[in-house]
Write a structure and sequence with these properties.
The protein is of the alpha/beta class. About 40% of the residues lie in helices and about 15% in strands. Strands 3-2-1-4-5-6-13 form a seven-stranded parallel β-sheet, sandwiched between helices. The protein has a two-stranded parallel ribbon with strand order 7-10. The longest helix has 21 residues. The N terminus and C terminus are likely disordered. This is UDP-glucuronate 4-epimerase. InterPro entries: NAD(P)-bd_dom (IPR016040), NAD(P)-bd_dom_sf (IPR036291).
Length: about 450
């Protein structure tokens, strides 16, 4: 959650008996752990798809621009040097995908591998001997030089990172032809809540169409991989029950980002039901740490405190404190790997379902919400500098007032146990930040080309 921040081929399906229908409907309800009218879910999903077509249509884009002349629409640029194919490229892909851990190693395609979570997860998989192939388009949502630095880390670990887009069906088909991936860790997504007010179409292309592209490639593979993908705690939206549990309703999103992730969870159910894909969704809660995203508050708070600039702290309309369930990156990676390790095999082959397949969703959080003012206080101690604070009312930009994860299901099913508190985690982040951005002269502000640009001003 970000305060701190294709067409599908039509395939005939066999007619299911009434008994089979009730069986699958029961499985759907059990996955959500609660019962609400089926019509509500179908209506939400249909609305999301219609909204997607509206957003990506040229007419709608121009109409919004005309009605909001003060809002600049910023398109995302990707790497112009991206290229794939050829004997040498194929050799790198196969070598990177080779499993070195026997007999229980896995071979994983990691999308968004140059991203924050993607880099850490890819390195963790590689360290334990798994095969890993990364995929990333290096867009400019934030400074691509940080992504290139992460790519260098992956290269040192022996992970080959393919430059390309998840919506490139030919590229995905080629990768699945070259490698029999046992798993896909799908982390590529358009992140951030507030950026949706600038470029809404990017959320549909990446989080909805991009997910469909990955699922299409997986379900068409001769040997279908198990899928673990990043949903978000944002799906809880306007829910006021705490702590947030997987059994709570998620049909009231507060942002387009949240709506795109909720649509993704419904799409995942469809591909599990029709094609037998084993799918696990992970609802991340405010991930932070070294090599993090510059659009997250802890990151640009650090930058601005060091620069002597004022930082904006939001408060609720009634003066209530804004709080987040901050989760350290190593704990998130632990949950990702546990999800991969416990994922059952998909049951389909070449797009044909052979039997029921696993479908899961888990919260990955820290269970200890911390007020943003306390986050700032911790940063002040580690940076040995006082922040210039400016407290304002939280605007209507899709952010929510608090998040709090119930992780009992992840503990039970995944053995998930977060171990890093915010004090310790921020100490590690600040140490990395000062090392990464500080030139020999000692003044990180003089560093050129590495200052992570933020799409958010507060």
């Amino acid at each position: 959650m970000s305060y701190m921040d294709v067409a599908v081929p039509s395939i005939p399906a066999k007619f299911k008996s009434e008994k089979s229908y009730h069986h699958h409907h029961h499985r759907f309800l059990r996955w959500h752990h609660f019962s609400f009218p089926k019509l509500l879910t179908l209506s939400f999903f249909a609305a999301a798809i219609l909204f997607a077509f509206f957003l990506i249509s040229p007419h709608s884009s121009s109409a919004v621009s005309r009605s909001s002349p003060t809002t600049e629409r910023r398109s995302l640029r990707t790497s112009s040097s991206a290229a794939w194919g050829g004997p040498e490229w194929e050799k790198h892909v196969r070598s990177s995908a080779r499993i070195r851990r026997r007999p229980f190693g896995i071979s994983v395609l990691v999308t968004g591998a140059a991203g924050f979570v993607g880099t850490h997860a890819s390195n963790a998989l590689r360290r334990r001997g798994d095969g890993v192939v990364g995929l990333d388009n290096f867009n400019n949502y934030y400074d691509p030089s940080l992504k290139r630095a992460r790519q260098a880390l992956l290269s040192k670990s022996g992970v080959f990172l393919v430059e390309g887009d998840i919506n490139d069906a030919l590229l995905l088909s080629k990768l699945f032809d070259l490698v029999t991936f046992t798993h896909v860790l799908h982390l590529a997504a358009q992140a951030g809540v507030r950026y949706a007010m600038v470029n809404p179409g990017s959320y549909v292309r990446s989080n909805v169409a991009g997910l469909v592209s990955i699922l299409e490639a997986a379900r068409s593979a001769t040997s279908q991989p198990a899928i673990v993908w990043a949903s978000s705690s944002s799906v809880y939206g306007l829910n006021t029950q705490v702590p947030f549990s997987e059994s709570h309703r998620t049909d009231r999103p507060a942002s387009l980002y949240a709506a795109s992730k909720k649509a993704g969870e419904e799409i995942a159910h469809v591909y599990n039901h029709i094609y037998g894909l084993s799918i696990t969704g992970l609802r991340f809660f405010t991930v932070y740490g070294p090599w993090g995203r510059p659009d997250m508050a802890y990151f640009f708070f650090t930058r601005d405190i060091l620069a002597g600039k004022s930082i904006t702290i939001f408060e609720g309309s009634d003066g209530a404190t804004i709080a987040r369930d901050f989760t350290y990156i190593d704990d998130i990676v632990q949950g990702c790997l546990a999800s991969l390790d416990t994922a059952q095999k998909s049951t389909g082959s070449g797009g044909t379902k052979q039997g029921p397949a696993q479908l899961r969703v888990f919260n990955l959080g820290n269970t200890s919400p911390v007020p943003v003012v306390e986050l700032v206080a911790i940063l002040e101690r580690h940076l040995k500098m006082k922040a210039k604070r400016k407290v304002v009312k939280m605007p209507r930009n899709g952010d929510v007032q608090f998040t709090h994860a119930n992780i009992s299901l992840a503990k039970k099913e995944l053995g998930y146990h977060p171990t890093t508190n915010l004090q310790t985690g921020l100490k590690k982040f600040v140490k990395w930040y000062l090392t990464y951005y500080a030139p020999p002269s000692g003044s990180y502000l003089n560093k050129k080309g590495r200052s992570g640009s933020s799409s958010n001003s507060s």
